[in-house]
Design goal:
binds 3-isopropylmalic acid, Rossmann fold, NAD (chains A, B), amino-acid biosynthesis (chains A, B), IsoPropMal-DH-like_dom (chains A, B), ten-stranded mixed beta sheet, 11 helices, LeuB_actb (chains A, B), 12 strands, Isopropylmalate Dehydrogenase, alpha/beta, homodimer, globular
Chain lengths: 346, 346
């Protein structure tokens, strides 16, 4: 008999609320014969204030034993910027080698977009997750003086670039349009840019059916608002991926519906699924948060674990729910979760 | 009697055509008593192919003697990516210490935007121009092998950050809304991020009338499409500035109307003014390019040299021209230039 042993990290702010709904929908969609075990972990601002810890080796050992991780959100204004980001979120992505950061963008019928017209948006960004300017390399000298110098080092390896580029080509190959765009800034960041571009072109030879294009990151932001239908699969580095996926979320319905997976395709470590949005402390605890992004992250999680039919049921339920929202009164976090749970079970 | 001694760099592709119109409007707007001298320089792809040179020390000496530089566009697919960008454009910005890269975004009446509704967009980005990931620091080892490692080093100094932050505060102070946003990614790029944030907060104390906010670059892309009216002045680093100004141009009428100044406020070296768009080789030589961004760059140039009334006349002429475009047949590059020249003279 099948089972899913899930680590659950509600985290800070609205994380608690949205994760509860994600689990509700997960339980509702799973077939009877699949045994779902969940273990909750208390990470984030509360733990940091209580113990000074963000993520210990013992924590990593414990998390490692799960099949996957569902995360709500981490972050609180009471904690200095960077402490939880570097000390928890990025530490986990790096420790578990989450090199494929998967972020689909699909504008569903009935969903509002800030763009004029009715653009067709349906693409997925494969963001590298373990290299680039996110490595924490760099430093500061003469801190706080008028002679301070601060550096940030973007580290890019053939190994790291090739595996994520290969993953993106495989995803493009599996989609009807079979298109892949590399986003970088190879006219300025020539060292990293040439590495990315060369490997991209090399791997392209193994995927003759995939149509490729290269685009500078600045130009990409223009296309994302003027021709978003142009994109099918995008592969890009950690920082550019961070930027373009927030913009992609904004044009395709907002971060209320943007899901993501921090994936280790080798399976050596559990992958982690989380909404793209943050902890939104201003609306926390009020039942106002939209759990849809978390529910869609649960679908990514199920797909990753091989439950394709169940993932599709969630996607369909969300699409149906969103298409019926216009003109209706706003629902609470748990009302939306209830509605989705009913739909996926029915 | 007054005079302007201008270096003119038409460059590649549509650069030639749009610069001709920029000069036409400049001649038309200048009072009789101002003597305009122009000297044309042949930089870009043609020169590179003929001589292998992009920008020599002798070129820099010659350019240095001018009051300002007007640039069309540099870049051609026949030249490998990075050669002209690093070898000419960035070399010039760095050699002449163009640390204030000024990019206004204003959505003028009658101009199309990809955004729904009728957002009010009127802000200016002060992009740092001589530091950050643009320094060319970094390198490659084991090039072309499976063990290649490529690094890019972002260099940030208290000196470099403070002067551009100070410039941005002064600009915010001089505007009616007096708002300044710092855009960075200080939760991940903590070394550079803390330097920027600390200096921003320190300088803020000297400008108590300016309302400040901090925003991560990823979140900024969301606000640029959902709440662009939120922005008044933005200050940011070289790479983030590159990205957000292309997005800003896209939402405020497109790169056909986006102007920029590469400014050295000390006056030790001439400042350079250029449209944000590139050389667009696909439409070069056909009279299809819109010279408006170049004409608006001429206005920035005049304002920088102290010709405020003339700059304002150009801005007004462009606004009037744009407001009357809807529904009319497309005009050629020189027809648009002629129309603007008539307006500014009238
Ligand atoms: C919170 C932050 C560290 C994170 C990132 O930059 O990756 C977030 O913006 C994201 O996109 O998941
Ligand atoms: C061409 C390139 C070097 C340049 C930059 O990145 O600064 C351009 O994109 C710009 O914004 O002026």
């Amino acid at each position: 008999s099948r089972s899913i042993n899930l680590a659950v990290i509600p985290g800070d702010g609205i994380g608690q609320e949205v994760v509860a709904e994600g689990l509700k929908v997960l339980s509702a969609v799973l077939p009877q014969d699949v045994k779902l075990e969940t273990e909750e972990y208390d990470f984030g601002a509360r733990r940091y204030h209580a113990t000074g810890e963000t993520l210990t080796d013992a924590d990593l050992d414990a998390l490692k034993r799960h099949d996957a991780i569902l995360l709500g959100a981490i972050g609180d204004p009471s904690v200095p910027s960077g402490v939880l980001e570097r000390g928890f979120l990025l530490k986990l992505r790096f420790a578990f080698d989450h090199h494929v950061n998967l972020r689909p963008s699909k504008l569903l019928p009935g969903v509002a977009t800030p763009l004029a017209g009715e653009p067709e948006i349906d693409f997925v960004v494969v963001r590298e997750g373990t290299e680039g300017p996110y490595t924490g390399n760099g430093g500061t000298i003469r801190k706080g003086t008028e002679h301070e110098v601060a550096t940030e080092v973007s580290v890019n390896t053939a190994f790291g670039v090739e595996r994520v580029v290969r993953d993106a080509f495989a995803r493009a190959q599996a989609r009807p349009r079979k298109k892949l765009a590399l986003i970088h800034k190879n006219n300025v960041l020539t060292f990293a840019g040439h590495l990315w571009t060369n490997i991209f072109n090399q791997v392209a030879e193994e995927f003759p059916e995939v149509t490729t294009e290269y685009m500078h990151v600045d130009a990409a932001t223009i296309y994302l608002v003027t021709q978003p239908e142009r994109f099918d699969v995008i592969v890009t580095d950690n920082l550019f991926g961070d930027i373009v996926t927030d913009l992609a979320a904004a044009v395709s319905g907002g971060i209320g519906v943007a899901a993501s997976g921090n994936i280790n395709p080798s399976g050596d470590f559990p992958s982690m699924f989380e909404p793209v949005h943050g902890s939104a402390p201003d609306i926390a605890g009020q039942g106002k948060a939209d759990p849809t992004a978390t529910v869609l992250s649960v679908a990514l999680l199920l797909r990753h674990l091989g439950y394709e039919a169940e993932a599709a049921r969630i996607d369909d339920a969300v699409a149906a729910d969103l298409s019926e929202r216009t003109g209706k009164p706003a629902r609470s976090t748990s009302e939306i979760g209830d509605a989705l749970a009913v739909r996926v079970a029915g």
